[in-house]
Amino acid sequence: MAMEAATIERLIREGIPDCTVQIADLRGDGDHYAAHVESPSFKGKSRVQQHQMVYAALQGKMGGELHALALTTGVPEGA
Fold it and tell me: Could you give the CA distance from residue 66 to residue 3 in angstroms, rounded to a whole number?
């Protein structure tokens, strides 16, 4: 069962409340998404740690309901 972009965005926002999120459905099939997530809480963390925070926010749905997620993360300018 595919996941909706709005659900992905909601889970990430709930898990990382100070973030901004942009979600794109890469193939229009509800199975392949790209997410760009920026958060001040990523400051000082490695890219791997940032991605781990996003995956934790997705509550284990990665690889199950959410088949593929191209993820980019970063710290907002000025943070």
Answer: 6
* Residue 7 buriedness (CB in 10 A; 0-12 / 13-18 / 19+): middle
Q: Coil, helix or strand for 64?
A: coil
Q: How far apart are CA 68 and CA 39, in angstroms?
A: 22
Q: What region, left, alpha or beta, does residue 30 occupy, with left being phi > 0 and alpha being psi -120 to 50 degrees?
A: left
Q: Give the position of tokens 């999120």.
A: 21
Predicted TM-score of the model (pTM):
0.89
Bridge partners of residue 22, in order along the sequence? 36
SS3 category, 30:
coil
Q: What is the pLDDT along the chain (79 residues), one digit of tens a residue?
A: 578 899 999 999 999 999 999 999 998 877 789 999 999 999 999 999 999 999 999 988 877 777 788 999 999 998 7
